[in-house]
């Protein structure tokens, strides 16, 4: 399925019975793939409104925020995501977000 078609199909489900964290996460990821960072971040925030313990959504929100030039928002998302991932025992997600933060901090200080 073409990405634009996929985005349209996902958008068509918003507000319906399948609307939820997974739908919003999927839409956010597809929008980010299309370079729509601000809209992707908005959908990922909506995913987190549905489920604030969704560590993958925190991770992708950080990426979308960074892609949109929102460095502090990216760092904040990853910090929150690390806390969520650690609480859930999601070691890999926490590790990945720590790496993203470390790279971000290295870029800011250098």
Structure in a nutshell:
The protein has 110 residues and is an all-alpha fold.
What labels describe this entry?
0% strand, 110 residues, mainly alpha, Serine Threonine Protein Phosphatase 5, Tetratricopeptide repeat, globular, 79% helix
Major sheet size, sense and barrel closure: none
How big is the Rg? 14 Å
Low-confidence stretches: none
Helical fraction: over 70%
Which class do the helix and strand fractions yield?
mainly alpha
How would you describe this structure to a colleague?
By secondary structure, the chain is an all-alpha fold. The chain has one domain (3-109): Serine Threonine Protein Phosphatase 5, Tetratricopeptide repeat. It has 6 helices and no strands. It is globular. The mean pLDDT is 94.
Map the helices and strands.
Layout: H1 3-12, H2 21-33, H3 37-50, H4 55-67, H5 71-88, H6 91-109
């Amino acid at each position: 399925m073409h990405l634009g078609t996929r985005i349209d199909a996902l958008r068509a489900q918003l507000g319906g019975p399948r609307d939820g964290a997974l739908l919003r996460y999927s839409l956010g990821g597809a929008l980010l793939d299309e370079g729509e960072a601000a809209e992707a971040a908005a959908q990922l925030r909506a995913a987190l409104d549905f489920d604030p313990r969704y560590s993958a959504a925190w991770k992708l929100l950080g990426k979308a925020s960074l892609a949109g030039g929102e460095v502090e928002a990216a760092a904040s998302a990853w910090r929150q995501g690390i806390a969520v991932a650690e609480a859930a025992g999601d070691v890999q997600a926490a590790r990945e977000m720590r790496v993203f933060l470390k790279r971000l901090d290295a870029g800011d200080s250098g």
